[in-house]
Design a protein that fits this description.
The complex is a heterodimer.
Chain A lengths: L2 E6 L3 H11 L3 E6 L12 E5 L4 H14 L7 E5 L8 H6 L3 E4 L4 H11 L8 H22 L4 E8 L3 E2 L3 E9 L1 E9 L1 H12 L8 H22 L7 E3 L3 E4 L3 E2 L8 E8 L2 E11 L13
Parallel strand pairs in A: 1-2, 1-3, 3-4, 4-5
Antiparallel strand pairs in A: 6-13, 7-12, 8-9, 8-10, 8-11, 9-14, 13-14
Helix pairs in contact in A: 5-7, 6-7
Chain B lengths: L1 E5 L3 H11 L5 E5 L2 H11 L3 E6 L8 H10 L8 E5 L4 H9 L4 E4 L4 H14 L4
Classes of the chains: A alpha/beta, B alpha/beta.
Chain lengths: 290, 126
C-alpha cells in the first residue's frame, strides 16, 4: 500500500527534495491549506515554515484539528534552522520541526520513521479497552442521547492532548494510570447542552468544564465496575479539567497510551487510556515501542 | 414537599432535576454535603427526599448520612445515593449509615424518576 503524504503549500523545490528523499513508495501530493478539511487518510502532513510564527502556529492547529485525533505526523520544515524554541510548534500540534540545513540522510531517516504506523492493540488489550469503549458510548447515550460511534484505537507513547478541553482522572489500585477524554468546543457544547436539556446558547465555559469532568467521572466509574475482582481493577480520583491544546500529561514510565477515537455526527472526540497493571498481566504492561 | 439534589456538578444536578420534573416538586440544589445540612436546618420539615452524590467537597455523601443519622429530626427523610460509586463495600457503608437506595451513574431519567417516586410514596423503608 502506498503511503499518502500531503505537502501543504510547499514550494516546488521543497516538494522535489522531499520526493527524492522519500522515494517511490510514497505518494506525495501538493495540497492547498485553504482546501483542507479532512486529513485522516494521510500518513503524514508536511508544511513549510514560511511566514510569521503566529500564522504558522495557527495553520498547525488547524491541520491538527483536521486529523481528527488520528496520529498523523505533522512535520514543519524550513530551509533555515529555527532559532526560536520548538515548543510552540509542538504544543500547537506539530510532531517534528526540521530544517534542510540538517543532513539529508538524517531528515530522510526521521521522515521514514514517522511513516511507521502506530501500534494497534493486541487481542488481550482489546479485552479491557472494549470496556472503556462500551461505557463511553453508554454514558453519552444515556445522559445526552448522543450516539457515539467507535472508529479506531491505536497506541502512542506520548500523552499529549490536542483538543480544546480535556477531562482527566487518575486511576490507582491493582492497575494504575490515567484516563482522559478530549473534545473540541463545538462537540463539547452540543453534548453538555443535551445532557442539561437546554439550548446550546445557554452553555457557557463553566458548564462545559463541569460537564466534561462529569463525563470522564461517569466513564471511569462505570468501567471500574466491569473490572471488579479482576487483576486490573482500579479506584478513581476526582476529575480534573484542562483547557487548551498541546498539554503533555505525565504518565507511568514505559506505559503506552491507547487513543480511542469516536465520532458523533461527523465530529470527533478521543478517549485516552494509560493503564498499567501492577501484576503480570499479559497485554496490560509496559514496554511497547512504536 | 421539596427534594434536595446534592452533587458538586451543576450539570449533574440539572440532569437529576430534569429527570424528576414530572413529580412537580420544588428542588433545592446543594453543591456539597454542608449545604445539604444547611437546607435541612432551614427547611427540614418540607424535605421529602435527598438525592445524594458520594464524592463531594467540604463534606461527602457518607459524612452527610452519618450526620443525619445522629439527628432524630431527619432520620425519617429517605436518602438515595446517586453516584458512580456502587461497589459493595461502599454501598454497605451507605446502607449502614441510613441510605434507603442507590442508583448508579449514568442512569436513564425514567429509572431515576421511578426510584424517587417509589421512595417518596413508600417513605422510610428499604
Amino acid at each position: 500500500m502506498t503511503d499518502k503524504i500531503a505537502a501543504i503549500d510547499c514550494g516546488q523545490q521543497t516538494v522535489s527534495t522531499l520526493k527524492g528523499m522519500l522515494g517511490e513508495d510514497v505518494q506525495l501530493t501538493s495540497e492547498s491549506f485553504d482546501g483542507i478539511q479532512n486529513l485522516q487518510n494521510y500518513m503524514m502532513i508536511i508544511i513549510e515554515g514560511n511566514g510569521n510564527q503566529r500564522d504558522i502556529l495557527q495553520r498547525i492547529r488547524k491541520l491538527r484539528y483536521a486529523c481528527y485525533f488520528r496520529a498523523v505526523p505533522i512535520i514543519l520544515i524550513n530551509n533555515r534552522a529555527y532559532s526560536d524554541s520548538m515548543e510552540p510548534y509542538i504544543t500547537s500540534g506539530a510532531t517534528e520541526v526540521l530544517s534542510f540545513e540538517e543532513p539529508s540522510a538524517a531528515i530522510q531517516q526521521i521522515l521514514k520513521g514517522y511513516l511507521i504506523p502506530n501500534r494497534k492493540p493486541l487481542k488481550e488489550e482489546m479485552e479491557y479497552l472494549n470496556s472503556f469503549i462500551k461505557n463511553t458510548i453508554n454514558v453519552l447515550n444515556t445522559t445526552a442521547t448522543v450516539e457515539a460511534v467507535f472508529k479506531e484505537v491505536y497506541f502512542t507513547n506520548d500523552f499529549r492532548v490536542f483538543g480544546d478541553i480535556s477531562g482527566i482522572i487518575g486511576l490507582s489500585g491493582e492497575a494504575e494510570g490515567i484516563l482522559g477524554i478530549t473534545f473540541y468546543w463545538p462537540l463539547a457544547k452540543t453534548i453538555i447542552a443535551k445532557m442539561m436539556g437546554v439550548d446550546e446558547e445557554h452553555i457557557n465555559a463553566d458548564l462545559i468544564h463541569d460537564g466534561v469532568a462529569e463525563i470522564i467521572n461517569m466513564i471511569s466509574g462505570s468501567t471500574k465496575k466491569d473490572f471488579v475482582g479482576k487483576p486490573y481493577h482500579f479506584e478513581i480520583s476526582l476529575p480534573s479539567v484542562i483547557v487548551g491544546s498541546g498539554h503533555q500529561i505525565g504518565h507511568a514510565e514505559n506505559t503506552p497510551i491507547a487513543v480511542i477515537i469516536f465520532e458523533v455526527n461527523f465530529q470527533y472526540f478521543a478517549l485516552q487510556v494509560c493503564l498499567k497493571s501492577k501484576g503480570n498481566i499479559k497485554g496490560l504492561s509496559a514496554g511497547y515501542k512504536k | 414537599m421539596k427534594i434536595i439534589i446534592a452533587d458538586d456538578s451543576r450539570v449533574m444536578r440539572n440532569i437529576i432535576e430534569n429527570a424528576i420534573k414530572p413529580l412537580g416538586l420544588a428542588t433545592l440544589h446543594a453543591g456539597n454535603g454542608q449545604e445539604v445540612l444547611d437546607f435541612l436546618e432551614r427547611e427540614g420539615a418540607e424535605i421529602g427526599i435527598i438525592l445524594l452524590d458520594w464524592n463531594m467537597p467540604v463534606m461527602n455523601g457518607l459524612e452527610v448520612l452519618e450526620t443525619i443519622k445522629k439527628n432524630k429530626t431527619y432520620t425519617d427523610i429517605p436518602v438515595l445515593i446517586v453516584s458512580t460509586e456502587s461497589e459493595d463495600d461502599k454501598m454497605s457503608k451507605a446502607f449502614a449509615a441510613g441510605a434507603k437506595g442507590y442508583i448508579s451513574k449514568p442512569f436513564t431519567p425514567e429509572r431515576l424518576l421511578n426510584l424517587v417516586r417509589g421512595r417518596i410514596s413508600v417513605g422510610p423503608t428499604c
